[in-house]
Amino acid sequence: MCGIVGCILKNNDKNVAPILFDCISKLEYRGYDSIGLATYDGDIHIKKDKGKIDEVNQKLDLPDMPGNFGIAHVRWATHGDPSKLNAHPQIDENMDIAVVHNGIIENNSKLKADLIAEGHTFKSDTDTEVIPHLIEKYMNEGFDLEHALRKTIELLDGAYAIAAISSKEPDKIVATRKDSPLIVGLGDDGYYLASDSPAILKYANNIIYPEKGEIVILDKNGVVVHDEFDNPINKEIDTIDWTPEMAEKEGYDHFMIKEINEQADAVKRTLTQKDNIQKIIDELDDLSRICFVACGTSYHASLTGKYLLESLAGIPTDVILASEFKFSAKTLDENTLVIFISQSGETADSLKALDVANKTSKTLGIVNVAGSSITRRAHYVIQTQAGPEIGVAATKTYVSQLSAIYLFAALLSDNQELLDELNKVPDYIDDVLKEIDLIKSMSERYNYAKDFFYLGRGYSYPTALEGALKLKEISYIHGEGYAAGELKHGPLALIDEGIPVVVVIPPGDSHKKTMSNLEEVKSRGARVLAFGSEDDDELDEKATEVFKINSEVSEIIAPLVYIVPLQLLSYYITVEKGFDPDKPRNLAKCVTVE
Q1: Per residue in 365-379, pLDDT tens?
Q2: Side-chain half-sphere exposure of 499, counting CA atoms within 13 A
Q3: Are 102 and 592 in contact (CB under 8 A)?
Q4: Rounded to 5 degrees, what are φ and ψ at 566?
Q5: 339, 290 in Cβ contact below 8 A?
Q6: Of these residues, 2, 7, 23, 590, which one is catalytic?
Q7: What's residue 244's pLDDT?
């Protein structure tokens, strides 16, 4: 959460503020409640306030600031309410140093008390404000900006990505990171910092990934990176093949609906990873157990992976929430493969768990963002090919994760039939997307609801969970997913007249029992929204609403296809209710702090 941008232009006569504003606007999806910019032109100039980017810009005209280098920030409040004083950049009392920071400084109270005792005056309630004061302290003791930052981070506990500028050492930006994302971009017209690549794709696609404790120095002549012992490092430069257009709406009303419509292509691209996955499997000997570690939507993808690996490969498989991983860590051994699934590759809980798992077990990351922390720390990596996902609610990254898991399971079990079925999935998804108008009309009839229930069995159970998550994330309707066989163990008590119940009911072994569950909720007054096969005539008789899917979609691959209409249902209900599906309240795209 929060977003950082920095830029220094090679041309002294060009103002950087319009570029900073453009870049930071592309980080809205990370979640924020305030925005601010700092530039330098003989003095440090700062404009910041709480509110949405467009609102603050109308009031302050953020691109109208002098100077050819600067830093910018969108903040999600952790310490201190959203306010102009608490917005970043934060400064020292003399306005000589400006800092933007993503993360949490856990020992900020003690550091602040010590600095106040030394005569420093604080204006905000943020944990961040200790950073410019510490840098000021060390620069007053004779350290340059780089080494003042180095001395500062030696005192900081917690997670951080930091960028700083100083009027005492102009024409330079210094930055560092620990457990929060930060990338460096090398462009034709300048050099860039950002929390995530969509911010700077328009200006730079050659990227450096700083590691924990490294110091990055940007000036108009280039980028220098020093390790924790002040030695210069020749960092590898990666080229991101995402285009700037991939991070734009391209005529769609929202990023979410654009990304739902991109899912067939995302699956196609991810299926090209077959050879890479086969190489990984060839190196994995004597596996006695597999353990998925994930959060949120990635957790639901992992649950599907459990069903696949246990039923196809016969390998005991567990799924553990990353935040709960420490309670299971002692069960790992050298014959366990631990699979970490993360869209961003920067999820804080997952990174901590990965460091623990690396000590005992083989680790595999399934990640969408190239060069992210998980890709650099895991023993093996499967790169999903979803492209940039801006909408907070995961859609195309979910089906990409599933595609990678399906490939892994099919290759591990040498299941050619499943591999052949996977190649047809993009066409099945496109078939669903042709029926968007049916979902639109359904959403108009059910946006009144305060509660939704989702039911599925077997492979469809994680799909029910994910469908419910999508609804609650963006529409703020309470949605619960259940294994259909659990109805009589409690949830049935919640069913009464008019409650919508979504039933995921593809053809297959689970169909008959799921149909019985459908009748149970219908008999208690529920309005049943069934998602099933186009040749399932029984559904027409028993469900209130039916959305039909190609009958060739088997039970085993149904999670890749049946999730699409559930995503669409959540999207259109949200739009009907007048909410912005791209910016759900209280949520952010990348949860990089606990």
Answers
A1: 999 988 888 988 999
A2: 25
A3: yes
A4: -70, -40
A5: yes
A6: 2
A7: 67
Query: What CA–CA distance (Å, rounded) separates 50 from 86?
Result: 8
Select from 176, 240, 547 the least CA-distant residue to 371. Answer: 240
**What are residue 222's DSSP bridge partners?**
219
Task: Please report, for residues 215, 342, 351, 482, 576, the alpha-carbon distance to residue 228 in angstroms, rounded to integers and kept in the order given.
Answer: 8, 28, 21, 49, 53
Count of other CB atoms within 10 angstroms of residue 335: 14
Q: Pairing relation of β-strands 183-186 and 190-194?
A: antiparallel
Q: Catalytic residue at 23?
A: no
- Whether 16 and 27 have beta carbons less than 8 Å apart is answered as no
Backbone angles phi, psi at 60, to 5 degrees: -115, -15
Tokens 């920095």 belong to 6
Q: Quote the CA–CA distance of 375 and 357 in Å, as a whole number.
A: 14
For residue 38, give Cα distances in angstroms to 69, 280, 473: 9, 46, 33
pLDDT band of 127, cuts 50, 70, 90: very high
**Could you give the angle at the alpha carbon of 318 between the alpha carbons of 314 and 320, nearest 5°?**
165
pLDDT digits (tens, 9 = 90+) for 213-240: 999 999 999 999 999 889 999 998 988 8
Distance between CA atoms of 514 and 516, rounded to whole angstroms?
5
Residue 2 annotated in active site: yes
Query: Please, what's the b/e burial string for 134-165 (b: 16 or more CB within 10 A of its CB; e: otherwise)?
Result: bbbbbbeeebbbbbbbbbbbeebebbbbbbbb
Which backbone phi and psi does 318 adopt, to 5 degrees?
A: -110, 155
Q: Are 220 and 10 in contact (CB under 8 A)?
A: yes
With beta carbons less than 8 A apart as the criterion, state whether 113 and 87 touch: no
Catalytic residue chosen out of the listed positions 258, 362, 589, 590: 589
Torsion region of 11: left, alpha or beta (phi above 0 gives left; psi -120 to 50 gives alpha): beta
Instruction: Tell me which residue has tokens 């208690």.
Output: 524
> Is 0.85 surpassed by the pTM of this model?
no
CA dihedral (520, 526, 531, 534) in degrees, to 10, reads 80
d(CA 328, CA 27): 35
**Residue 416, CB-side half-sphere exposure with 13 Å CA sphere:** 0
Q: How far is CA 553 from CA 352, 395, 533, 548, in A?
A: 38, 19, 8, 11
Task: Measure CA 508 to chain center.
Answer: 33
> Residue 566 class from Cβ within 10 Å (0-12 exposed, 13-18 middle, 19+ buried)?
buried
273-285 exposure pattern, b = at least 16 Cβ within 10 A, e = fewer: beeebeebbeeee
pLDDT tens sequence across 316-354: 999 999 999 999 999 999 999 999 999 888 888 898 999
Could you give phi then psi for residue 141, rounded to 5 degrees?
Answer: -85, 0
Do you find a cis peptide bond into 89, omega within 30 degrees of 0?
A: yes
